[in-house]
Amino acid sequence: MITIKENINNVDEFNYLFDAVGWGSHDKKISQIALNNTMYSVSVYDDDKIIGYGRLIGDNICYIYVQDIIVIPEYQNKKIGKMIMNKLVDKIKEIKKENENVRAYLGASKGKEPFYEKCGFITREAAGLGAGMILEIK
Ligand SMILES: CC(C)(COP(=O)(O)OP(=O)(O)OC[C@H]1O[C@@H](n2cnc3c(N)ncnc32)[C@H](O)[C@@H]1OP(=O)(O)O)[C@@H](O)C(=O)NCCC(=O)NCCS
């Protein structure tokens, strides 16, 4: 049975999921710090097997970032990703009740934009905003 749980943030599951989608897991200590600083997360299980994850990071009231949306390959294209995003968007809407002006962002991997569009996100360009930018650390 597929279930979705909030705020589990299990470091072994997190690293397993990263490996499963070919991202390569972080050092366990680094993943643990990242998870400790997570605002809200959802983990999806098939019985007790972890199959998906997504998290929100941010200041909990003004700016929120959607991060690390993962569904393991065997379970992709079965609406699990959408289930994760719906739950994260519900959380963002809950925060919006406290702060009308909350902004939620994400950085889509190349080719994943249509998935996020189906979850209610639009590009910054479509929102009349400038480019999203990333620091090139040398
Ligand atoms: C991206 C990812 C999270 C999508 O999860 P998923 O469970 O396979 O997607 P879903 O089945 O919930 O798809 C929901 C909708 O988005 C569409 N969709 C999903 N991935 C898509 C893609 N790459 N391109 C176009 N549409 C896509 C589906 O067709 C579906 O459309 P529908 O509602 O009209 O039928 C998953 O493929 C994944 O984990 N990929 C590897 C990690 C990754 O790249 N994460 C995103 C980082 S930005």
Write the layout of secondary structure elements.
Layout (H helix, E strand, L loop, with lengths): L1 E5 L4 H10 L7 H9 L3 E7 L2 E10 L4 E9 L8 H19 L4 E4 L6 H6 L20
Parallel strand pairs: 4-5
Antiparallel strand pairs: 1-2, 2-3, 3-4
Care to describe what's here?
This protein has helices spanning 11-20, 28-36, 80-98, 113-118, and strands at 2-6, 40-46, 49-58, 63-71, 103-106. The chain is an alpha+beta fold and 138 residues long. It has a single domain (2-118), classed as Aminopeptidase, CATH 3.40.630.30. The longest helix has 19 residues, at 80-98. It is globular and about 40 Å long. The model has no long low-confidence stretch (mean pLDDT 97). Coenzyme A binds at residues 21, 69-71, 76-82, 108-109, 111-112, 114-115, 118.
